[in-house]
Design brief:
single chain, 387 residues, 21 strands, elongated, Immunoglobulin-like, 7-stranded mixed β-sheet, mainly beta, 2 domains
Length: 387
């Protein structure tokens, strides 16, 4: 009996442009002294990305990529078809790399191999939307002589940061690097992950706060202050409301973090098809006679940052709802100040109206190692191959 184990030692989350490493171990698990040697004809590894769509919302243009059904019929059981058994369309498939040919393992013997492949910078991100899904897997294929090919699949997640096509732009040259005459300068090339983290830190740094006056046809409701408009996964969105200068009493407000999934025009099943909205975190608060308050909304590490492909575009926004009163609301200040203890009670009934407002924000990837700490994806997978 042979066991094949494939694992991702760094974790299941990577940035497009990074090099993915997968360790593959082949073991002859037989313990009988009279057992014969196990022989494998070959083994190879490659990365695939499958795109599945909702047939009622999306119609894919006919391209050169093969669907799973087509790919399954172009070869026999002994061929290595990495997307065999997978749903949807293969939108990315790296060249297969051969681990070995003609491997012989004695009982109890193991052999380990390391597969490395750079994830293309123009690859789509991992995404699970209402109409479109992109999913990645490392596929390890192996075969006994004249037997069916067996495959090990290890799923992983890809984050995409646009602008990483040429990292040499971000590497310092000797002409612009700070020099010290007392130290020997040694040029250091930044890795893709280093460059990506530098870019993310720069674009999500707090700059000048943004102030918004929230009004409707009857007057001013509040003033909203947002300290920045670009965030990375795992960050908190912090904002402050100021009702002190409002001319309309606000009874309640809510803020919801939402993503918008928009299908491109050429892929829409219906021309009038709208945008699919997904809500993540909601902050709600009663604010009668509140002068100032704040909101704090965390961005889930498991969410997908904003992106665009030929099929779908994802954007992020804050969705506000303000419930305002059409009637004047008395305040505790109107109670007589005679030194006695009194209790103010708000009206039991109010004529109200609700106004909504959407504020676009930008969400960028985070350090993939941090994202790996909360994922539920397994970092290894295995199969057993019998005679």
């Amino acid at each position: 009996m042979l066991e094949v184990v494939a694992s991702l030692p760094r974790g299941p989350v990577f940035l497009a442009g990074e090099s993915l490493q997968c360790d593959v171990i082949f073991t002859n698990t037989s313990t009988d002294n009279q057992a014969v040697d196990e022989v494998l004809a070959w083994s190879s590894v490659q990365i695939i990305c499958q795109c599945t769509v909702s047939e009622s919302r999306v119609q894919l243009p006919r391209k050169n990529s093969l669907s799973t059904e087509e790919a399954s019929t172009t070869g026999c059981d002994t061929s290595f078809i990495p997307n065999k058994g997978e749903r949807g369309l293969t939108v990315l498939c790296t060249k297969p790399k051969i681990l070995f040919c003609d491997l012989k393992l004695s009982p109890g013997m193991s052999r380990s191999y390391t597969f490395e492949e750079v994830i293309p910078t123009d690859a789509p991100p991992s995404f699970r939307g209402q109409a479109v899904k992109y999913s990645y897997k490392v596929i390890v294929g192996t075969q006994r002589l004249e037997k069916a090919t067996k495959m090990v699949r290890v799923p992983f997640r890809v984050l995409v940061l646009y602008g990483l096509n040429d990292i040499s732009v971000y590497n310092e040259t000797e002409e612009i690097a700070p020099s010290n005459p007392f130290l020997h300068y040694q040029r250091k090339e930044n890795s893709v992950l280093d460059v990506a983290l530098q870019i993310i830190s720069t674009v999500t740094a707090r700059k000048a706060p943004h102030s918004y006056n929230i009004t409707n046809s009857r007057g001013r409701v509040a003033k909203f202050l947002l300290f920045k408009q670009a965030y990375k996964l795992g960050e908190d969105i912090v904002g402050m409301f100021d009702f002190s200068e409002g001319t309309i009493p606000c009874v309640q407000y809510s803020v919801t973090l939402q993503s918008e999934e928009q299908i491109s025009e050429e892929c829409r099943r219906k021309p009038s098809q709208g945008t699919a909205v997904t809500s993540y975190v909601k902050h709600q608060e009663m604010c009668v006679h509140t002068v100032r308050t704040h909101m704090n909304i965390p961005i889930p590490l498991t969410a997908t940052p904003g992106f665009i492909t030929d099929i779908v575009c994802q954007r992020w926004r804050l969705h506000f709802e303000f419930v305002t009163s059409l009637d004047e609301i008395g305040s505790p200040a109107s109670l007589p100040d005679d030194g006695e203890e009194r209790q103010w009670q708000g009206p039991s009934m109010l004529n109200v109206e609700t106004m909504v407002w959407d504020l676009p924000i930008k969400v960028f990837p985070t350090n993939p190692i941090h994202a790996s700490s909360v994922t539920l994806m397994k970092t290894s997978s295995s199969i057993h191959i019998g005679h």
